Structures are given as C-alpha cells and as structure tokens.
Amino acid sequence: MKTYTNVKDLGNLENAVKEALEIKKNRYAYKHLGENKTCLMVFFNNSLRTRLSTQKAAMNLGMNTIVLDVNQGAWKLETERGVIMDGDKTEHLLEAIPVMGCYADVIGVRAFAQFESKTFDYEETILNQFIKYSGKPVFSMEAATAHPLQAFADLITIEEYKRTARPKVVLTWAPHPKALPQAVPNSFADFMNEADVDFVITHPEGYELDEKFVRGAKIEYDQRKAFAGADFIYAKNWSAYQDPNYGKILSKDRSWTVDSEKMALTDNAYFMHCLPVRRNMIVTDDVIESPQSIVIPEAANREISAQTVLKRILENL
Ligand code: CP
C-alpha cells in the first residue's frame, strides 16, 4: 500500500478485516517492520483518538513518531498556489511538504474541510499536495471528504459485534450546534457499501450526501421507519453537501436525537458514534451509557485500523 485515502486502498475488504482481527490478537508481532522508520503525523485540526491511536499503532510496529500541530508552533502555512504572500502566512505548503518528507518515512495528514470552497474541499487539495510533493507514503487521518481510518475501525467493530450474517446498519443524521464536515458519513457509507450489510441512511431532506459515497444506498427520510429492525445505529451529524447550502446547518431539530424510545424500535441495536459526541444533541445520556453502546470498543479499534494500514505501508517501503 502506498497511500491510504479510501476503502479501495484496502483491496479485498473481507481480507483486510481478517488481517486486522489477527493483528488485534497479537499487536506486537510485527515490531521489526518499523525499526528505524519514522511516522510523521501532521495535524491541521484537533484530535484525541486519531492522535493517540495512530501513535500507539506506529509504536506497536516499532516506529518512531513525530507529531506536528501545524497551528501550534509551526509557521502559519499558505495552501493556495499563486497567492501573494504579504499577509500573516509565513511559509507555503509547497516548500513545507517536501521538507517534512525529508524527516519521515510515512506521513499521516489531518486536514478537515474548510467550507470556503466546495471544490477546494472535494478535490482534497491539501491531502493531495502531500501525496504529490512529500515523496513519501501518505495516509489520511481525516481529510476534507473522508475519514477512512474511522470507517475501517467501524467495520471491524461491526464484524466483532454482529449477531447475524448480514446485519441491518443504519447511518442516522443527528443535530449539532456547529457545521461539521461530511467526512465521517461519507467514509462510513463508502465502507458499508462494500461490506456485506443491509445499509440504510436516514436524514432530514436537504442533507443528501455526495452520490460518489452513497452509491445508491437506501435513503429513508423517516428516522423511525429506518430504525425498525436495525442491528446497528450509527449516529453522526453533518452539514449540507448540496449546493447552494454546502457547509451550512439547515436544521438543529432535536426530534432527530437518538433516544431510548427510538432505540426500542430496533432489534436491540448497538449504538455507535465516532466520538467526540455532543450528549443530548446527538444521543441521550441513557443511550450512550446503555449496555448497547459500543462507542468505547469502537474507539479502541482505531488502534487496530491504523496498525493494519501502517503495517501494509511498511511492508511496501
Ligand atoms: N473519531 C475521531 O477521529 O476522533 P478525533 O477527532 O478525536 O481524532
């Protein structure tokens, strides 16, 4: 593997999940692969899980790790080519990226959607500049349009908890006070469309995601109907994707909050969320604290998804 930006980079998904579950049983078995290799993790945005789990995964593989918070201590970076740099940005990404490549064997990048230009975001301008100019394998730690390490961890978790061969998995929009990117729901849809699950997406009208990720998956605008008989409820907020509302909040309707009354419509479904989660906006306290909530094992599997990806990259260095 040379880059990891979407589900296709994993090849056969069933094999990838099997490999991840093997790694989970003995996570130090490949420590030799990362000897004298450095994983640089570049964050343009905040993180708790991605930062810790990816660093842990790299250490499990014997790698050294460097974490750079671009907005805390590094020079302020210009990302657009052709700009006259007479403002507060000191360095251009086009120099910074190859310099970072000098100090790393593998580079992870977190660069969220900025909501200033849909084209800039959906062309994955920042991530693709790292891929083009660093000279090193690059993996996404959540880019503008996708969060494939999260979705891989989500699929591993569903595989571990499923009670039927082909579970019903429901991705539900839920309200949030801030405009959030579509990266997590995009990648979740991308992975579920490749997995052997009965996949349904529910959201208010106006929150339709990019068809590139939805790929004809069933959309049910009635959240209660969508929940009926579900085995997994995956809650997430996202802002509008469709023009002219790209990046905007269209609703904060708390009747979409996942609560115990709606969970009772399911087939005793497990509750999932990528975290961080706004309690009593996205999900009520009683649901997230219930025995059916698997948000912590889901977060724990971030270490395993990252380790599987890093192992595959190291095997191809
Ligand atoms: N789920 C996730 O990516 O968490 P962080 O934003 O804390 O890394």
How would you sum up this structure in a few lines?
The protein has helices at 13-25, 49-60, 93-102, 118-122, 125-133, 148-161, 183-194, 211-214, 223-227, 260-263, 285-288, 295-315; strands at 3-4, 38-43, 64-69, 77-78, 91-92, 106-110, 138-140, 168-173, 198-202, 218-219, 232-236, 270-272.
Tally of DSSP β-strands: 12
Envelope shape: globular
> Oligomerization state of this entry?
single chain
Largest sheet: 5 strands, parallel
Count of domains: 2
- Mind telling me which CATH architecture of the largest domain this is? 3-Layer(aba) Sandwich
**Major beta sheet, strand line-up:** 1-7-6-2-3
> What is the helical fraction, as a range of percent?
25-40%
- Unique ligands: phosphoric acid mono(formamide)ester
Mean of all residue-level pLDDT scores = 97
Structural class: alpha/beta
How many distinct helices? 12
Helix-strand pattern: EHEHEEEHEHHEHEHEHEHEHEHH
